[in-house]
Amino acid sequence: MRIDPHTHTTASDGTSSPTLLMDEAAAAGVTMLGLTDHDTVAGWDEAAARVCNTGVALIRGMEVSAAYRGISVHILAYLFDPTYPALVRHVTKVRTSRVDRAQQIVERLSNDLPITWEQVEVQITEGATIGRPHIADALVSIGAAKDRSEAFEYHLNARGPYYVPYYAPQAADAIEWIRAAGGQAVFAHPMAPHRGRIVPMEAFDELAEAGLFGVEVNHRDNPSAVIPQLKAIAQRLDLARFGASDYHGLGKPNRLGENTTSPAVIEALIRSCQLEVLCP
Ligand code: AMP
Ligand code: ZN
Ligand code: FE
Ligand code: FE
User: Fold this and answer.
1) 101: Cβ below 6 Å to ligand 1?
2) 132 CA distance to ligand 1 centroid (A)?
3) How many of the other CB atoms lie within 10 Å of CB of 232?
4) Strand-strand pairing, 71-78 and 184-187
5) What atom in ligand 1 is closest to the CA of residue 129?
6) How many CA atoms lie within 13 A of 226 on its CB side?
7) pLDDT, tens digit, 9 for 90 and up, residues 42-71
8) Are strands 32-35 and 240-243 parallel, antiparallel or unpaired?
9) Which mutation among 189, 252, 254 tests ligand 1's pocket best, with the greatest number of atoms within 8 A of CB?
10) Looking at the CA of 75, which ligand is closest?
11) Ligand 1 site, residue 131, Cβ cutoff 6 A
């Protein structure tokens, strides 16, 4: 068993279609894959249609953009009812806000660079959740950066001059809706330094209180020095320990299956969720 429960496709800011992602997962030896696009379930059906052909089991998920005391956090939602009204309402609002915000970032960038909104629009798959990576692709297309990583170093940096935030619900609320929708919530890459500010320790206690199921410990953006600390937090608060690649296709160096989650944790997740894993 090789379980990689956190990946992205062209339904948000990954570069592989859901079909291609499933094929790539099979080629990488991943036996069970979690599809967790940002604030959307738009990739679910296409990925589901590849389960039998690829032999890769599919965990349907979503990465919810949220906030903890003004700090941006990502909450992975797994195996939930995608029609649950509060969750649908809020992720729809997030997606809309992401469009306004992307336009504002491009507006700011255009003061210093020859970039237009049209150049960003052509980077986005119809209906996808827009994010800074699409602006990065436009910056690459005009020769202002060599790849997404370089565009994020300065032009799209959260601490840089062009950054604009977007609407995101409170993390504790998101966790409650995910659970009410029959799913479970996992705190994604909680210690990723380049994302902006890191949450204070009490955030884990509060989110555990709100019903958090697990925390992503093995993720390349968590500095190795904090892994023991994350393990201790998980142990103390009885949170399941996840590991995943956060694969974005060609957009990031992250490789499928580079971090994985144990079968025991995934069995516990499945037992406590409403939606089934789709098996070949
Ligand atoms: P946004 O959702 O618009 O705030 O943009 C954040 C997204 O950009 C996340 O999904 C990250 O995976 C992606 N991202 C962050 N840093 C980088 C980077 N250095 N290279 C490529 N993608 C990145
Ligand atoms: Zn992303
Ligand atoms: Fe994330
Ligand atoms: Fe992610």
Assistant:
1) no
2) 6
3) 10
4) antiparallel
5) 2
6) 18
7) 999 999 999 999 999 999 999 999 999 999
8) unpaired
9) 252
10) 3
11) yes
Residue with tokens 């967790």: 36
Give the DSSP letter string of the chain. Answer: --EEEEE--TTTT-SS-HHHHHHHHHHTT-SEEEE--BT--TTHHHHHTTHHHH--EEEEEEEEEEEETTEEEEEEEES--TT-HHHHHHHHHHHHHHHHHHHHHHHHHTTTS---HHHHHTTS-TTPPP-HHHHHHHHHHTTS-SSHHHHHHTTT-TTSTT-------BHHHHHHHHHHTT-EEEE-STT-GGGSPPPPTHHHHHHHHTT--EEEEE-TTS-GGGHHHHHHHHHHHTPEEEE---B-GGGSS--TTSS---HHHHHHHHHT-SSPPB--
**Amino acid found at 115:** I
Token pair 């798959």 is found at 125
Q: Which of 276, 256, 72 is nearest to 158 (CA)?
A: 72
* 248 Cβ inside 6 Å of ligand 1: yes
- Name the residue at shortest CA distance from atom 13 of ligand 1: 133
Does ligand 1 come within 6 angstroms of the Cβ of 219? no
Please name the residue whose Cα sits nearest to atom 1 of ligand 1. 131
Contact indicator for 265, 31 with CB cutoff of 8 Å: no
- pLDDT tens digits for range 74-104: 999 999 999 999 999 999 999 999 999 999 9
Phi, psi angles (nearest 5°) of residue 55? 75, 10
**What is the pTM for the complete model shown?**
0.98
